[in-house]
Design goal:
Number of strands: 2
CATH superfamily: MetI-like
Order of helices and strands: HHHHEEHHHHHHHH
Number of helices: 12
Radius of gyration: 24 Å
Family: Belongs to the binding-protein-dependent transport system permease family.
Number of domains: 1
Domain ABC transmembrane type-1: 107-307
Helix content: over 70%
Main location: membrane
Strand content: under 5%
Membrane topology: Multi-pass membrane protein
Strand order of the largest sheet: 1-2
Transmembrane segments: 35-56, 109-132, 152-171, 238-261, 286-310
Length: 319
């Protein structure tokens, strides 16, 4: 009987949730800002292109068996020397790698590093902020001083330092294979303080409220109070920071790869493609750098604009 009542009530709850979303300020603001809609469309298009890259590209640029050295430095819209039926839309690089294919596969790596680094920094910073804000005392003072010191350092330099330390601890033969994970950890460890400080401030406000006091009185464990009661009420600013941080993480990954300490040329991200193409700018092969740079610009700019819009919508003081 309970199951039947649940089944009957579920469509009603779904309709109610959809009606609430349809009438929300979030959707209204989104539909009345053309620039935000354009940014969302560009970001969605690039994410879908990266996810379905194997279905949308003529070759896998990560597979040396599919590359033709005879087709190196083909200009945009040029034909393959090995197969006249193949036209390279955006040209090829020094290894005969199709730039269009490389951009989609490189965007996949850039997005993977960006999302993973933001998620890692969010989980670490939120956990530290919750504990510091709720516990107070010397643990709060120590953790926040560490965060303050880290915030005085540029994120790129800190990520470079962390990347160098972790890579130095790995055997030389495993550094290229572990480059993706090391990048994620390096960027994540350089970004956690902003989440920690935001969550810590919100937690200090929430812990004084009656529902937290009641939870203490009935004897709930500290972990349950933090993650079941306080955490849902401090997640709004965290999500905004995470959205904006995604664009910064993508740029950080591209910067590290451009500096030669990120992804290897055999698995290029957008930053690696730009670095590789820079060597041929003066010899006339401008497309090797230009098109990946445009892709990186569109991706970072669209995500950043969405983050700014989300911050304004979720913060009534900014309206």
């Amino acid at each position: 009987m309970a199951t039947r009542e649940l089944d009957i009530a579920s469509p009603g709850r779904l309709r109610s949730s959809w009606r609430a979303f349809r009438d929300s300020d979030l959707l209204y603001s989104f539909l009345h800002q053309p620039l935000v809609m354009l940014s969302a469309a560009v970001a969605l298009l690039m994410v879908l292109g990266a996810v379905f890259a194997p279905l949308l590209t003529p070759q896998n640029p990560f597979n040396p068996a599919e590359l033709e050295l005879m087709d190196a430095f083909v200009a945009p819209m040029g034909e393959s020397l090995m197969d006249p039926d193949v036209t390279y839309l955006l040209g090829t690089d020094s290894q005969g790698r199709d730039i269009y294919s490389a951009i989609l596969y490189g965007t996949r790596i850039s997005l993977l590093v960006g999302f993973s680094a933001v998620l890692f920094a969010m989980i670490l910073g939120t956990s530290i902020g919750l504990y510091a804000g709720y516990r107070g005392g010397w643990p709060d003072a120590v953790l926040m001083r560490v965060a303050d010191v880290q915030l005085t350092l540029p994120n790129i330099l800190l990520a470079l330092l962390i990347f160098g330390i972790i890579s130095g601890l790995l055997p030389a033969g495993e550094r290229s294979e572990a480059a993706l994970i090391v990048l994620i950890v390096s960027i994540g460890l350089s970004d956690w303080p902003q989440y920690a400080r935001t969550v810590r401030g919100a937690t200090m406000v929430e812990k004084q409220k009656e529902y937290v006091q009641a939870s203490r009185v009935i004897g709930l464990p500290v972990a349950a109070i933090l993650f079941q009661h306080i955490l849902p009420n401090v997640m709004r600013p965290v999500l905004v920071i995470g959205t904006i941080g995604l664009a910064l993480a993508i740029i950080a990954e591209a910067t590290l790869s451009f500096l030669g300490v990120g992804m290897p040329p055999t698995q290029p991200s957008l930053g690696t493609l730009i670095r590789v193409g820079q060597d041929y700018m003066l010899s006339g092969e401008w497309w090797i750098t230009l098109f990946p740079a445009i892709a990186l610009l569109l991706l970072a700019l669209s995500v950043n604009l969405l983050g700014d819009w989300l911050r304004d919508v979720l913060n009534p003081k900014l309206r």
